[in-house]
Design goal:
single chain; alpha/beta; Rossmann fold; six-stranded parallel sheet; 15 strands; about 35% helix; about 20% strand
Length: about 425
């Protein structure tokens, strides 16, 4: 899907991002974080076991002996390398009744490829249905999200979508105000697929007081990253995991990684460093490089999100090491690094266009006074040298997946 200029956008106070900017001119990196005012990173490198935080990982090897890859790991990876199946989000929606309404989108940040590709797909889905989509440009600051919510409420839009990881926990008063005004709120790509509904709390593991969600396979993707490393290393890897502890899903992802290595790779060692969201673009490279220099045995780097993959790769190159980088999101710029280089070796990809359509489908259902879908899911696929060509050359946001998603949504919406 091609980006379009001159789309309706609402700029955050003090936002330097121009209205109607061309998405094709985005920097060639993913999920770029807000530039921190001061670079004051403290390296929090902890040599962890995959279960209790010791110096090296321990645990049983599943179905394989020490140094061997368990058959269960091989089977999961074989499936992940294939084109994933689709899942219907629910019954049909008569979107013709929604023409002229507005969906107001507040992305995590407006300066990264991941968010912008999802938002572009939402705009395209809105155009097909005659629904306006306003994307609120921001640099990932809470006060900007608050201002965006207030603007959407004042305009009495049809629905609000917190897109691509925007944290609903810091917007509870505004979400309540939107509900009081009759405006449904959709939260996309913040909650993990495993999150429970109607459980009386709001966290990354428990959904409450939100009208609709489009969850993400964060933990599944982290397990898949670990499995690929286990197989690629013949179950003898020394891994650096780059987390973001202030990002809602990260805690669950880190635990999933620990558990997978503990179960299937007793000869693997796993260490963790933390890079806060605000320092993704200013702190990742130095943090990873320091870790690689401190421990010359590290031979794999696993940043939880693509936003940190390119900088992790740069750290590997700068340190003169031969470590491989694996990550998650499937943004085209990172898939390109797999195609053109040897440092980024694998990425668990998402169909970013499909996420945008899933966001709009959820918004349409709520605006049409229908129940929110609880089967809304995006799919994942592992991309490495063996199949990354399926994503196109250069890679595109929705290639290499089951392209039937578009026809499915148009049929559900009565547009085909």
């Amino acid at each position: 899907m091609q980006s379009r200029a001159n789309r309706p956008r609402a700029a955050a106070p003090g936002d330097p991002v121009a209205r109607g900017r061309q998405r094709g001119n985005l920097p060639s990196r993913t999920m770029v974080g807000t530039v921190a005012a001061t670079l004051g990173l403290v390296l929090t490198l902890a040599a962890c076991t995959t279960s209790s935080g010791g110096a090296s990982s321990t645990g049983s090897a599943g179905s394989g002996a020490s140094g061997n890859v368990p058959d269960a790991v091989k089977a999961k990876l074989t499936k992940l390398l294939d084109v994933p199946a689709l899942e219907s989000p629910g019954p049909a929606v008569a979107v013709s009744t929604l023409k002229g309404k507005t969906v107001f989108v507040i992305p995590l940040q407006s300066t990264n490829q991941y968010n912008n590709l999802i938002d572009s797909a939402m705009e395209e889905a809105g155009k097909k249905a005659g629904v306006d989509v306003t994307v609120y440009t921001n640099q990932g600051q809470t006060n900007q999200w608050v201002a965006g919510m207030n603007q959407a409420i004042a305009q009495h839009v049809g629905a609000i979508v917190l897109s691509g990881g925007t944290d609903p926990r810091v917007l509870q008063p505004q979400i309540k105000a939107a509900r009081d005004a009759g405006i449904p709120v959709v939260v996309s790509q913040f909650f993990d697929n495993s999150a429970k509904y109607d459980c009386g709390a709001l966290s990354a593991d428990c959904i409450a007081d939100i009208d609709g969600v489009v969850p993400a396979p964060y933990q599944d993707a982290s397990v898949a990253d670990a499995d690929w490393i286990i197989q690629d290393s013949n179950a003898k890897a020394n891994v650096l995991v780059v987390t973001s502890n202030d990002a809602g899903p990260s805690k669950g992802q880190a635990e999933a990684v620990k558990k997978e290595f503990a179960s299937n790779c007793p000869d693997c060692t796993v260490k963790f460093v933390d890079v806060p969201v605000a320092q993704w673009t200013t702190g990742t490279q130095s943090t990873v490089q320091s870790a690689l220099v401190s421990d010359p045995n590290l031979n794999y780097v696993l940043p939880l999100y693509d936003v940190m993959a390119a900088q992790s790769a740069a750290a590997v190159t700068s340190s003169g090491k031969s470590a491989k980088v694996v990550s998650f999101n499937g943004t085209p710029s990172v898939l390109t690094l797999i195609q053109t280089g040897n440092v980024v070796a694998m990425d668990i990809g998402q169909n970013l266009a499909q996420i945008g359509y899933a966001n709009m489908d959820q918004a349409y259902r709520l605006m049409a006074k229908m129940p929110a879908s609880k089967t809304a899911r995006d799919v994942i696929r592992a991309f490495d040298k063996s199949n990354v060509g399926d994503a196109g050359t250069p890679p595109q946001q929705d290639k290499g997946f089951n392209d039937g998603y578009l026809d499915d949504y148009l049929k559900l919406w009565g547009l085909s």
